[in-house]
Amino acid sequence: MDAPFTLKLPIRFSHTDPAGIVYFPNYFDFCNAAVEDLYTRALGVDYAKLIFESRRGTPIVHASCDFFVPSKMGDTLDATVLLGEIGRSSIPIDIYFHAADVLRLKAKLVTVHMDLDTRKSAPIPDGLRARFDAYKAASAHWTPPAKPGEKQE
């Protein structure tokens, strides 16, 4: 398992606003892409099958972002995903967007494992919980990049 999982995101013209920087709602789409790819590429769980065959979803129930440095068309961001303390059905996720060893944005999400037929939260299956735990352990060594003007520890 490669951990922590980092998704490379090229910033395209369609991601930017008239000021030439990433339009802030696009970061939530980037977050969703990072979460989907975390499941499929890092945890070995096909995200599409999770939804369409297992009828389980992981909707975002909380989201917040701290913005530090704007990104513009032509930049490439690394989105590194860390997991917090997993609950019965909740999965706290921190996504660090960085480039050139500088933190540009930190997103904090909480997703909930959900039965898509009943539209109710559901316990995380033991097999998936084990993958989350292994991922967290394998990611424990990673230190986020420094915010602009801060020294890296």
Entry keywords:
153 residues, alpha+beta, five-stranded antiparallel beta sheet, three-stranded antiparallel beta sheet, 3 helices, 24% helix, globular
Structure report:
This protein is an alpha+beta fold. 24% of the residues lie in helices and 32% in strands. The protein is built from 3 helices and 8 strands. The protein has helices at residues 26-42, 47-52, 126-139, and strands at 5-10, 56-57, 60-67, 76-83, 90-99, 102-112, 114-115, 120-121. The strands form 2 sheets. A 5-stranded antiparallel β-sheet has the order 1-4-5-6-3. A 3-stranded antiparallel β-sheet has the order 2-7-8. The longest helix is centred in the N-terminal third of the chain and has 17 residues, at 26-42. The two termini are 25 Å apart.
CA-to-CA gap between the ends? 25 Å
How would you characterize the largest beta sheet? 5 strands, antiparallel
Q: Unreliable runs, pLDDT <50, ≥5 residues?
A: none
The succession of helices and strands, N to C, reads: EHHEEEEEEEH
Q: What is the rounded Rg?
A: 16 Å
| Anisotropy-based shape | globular
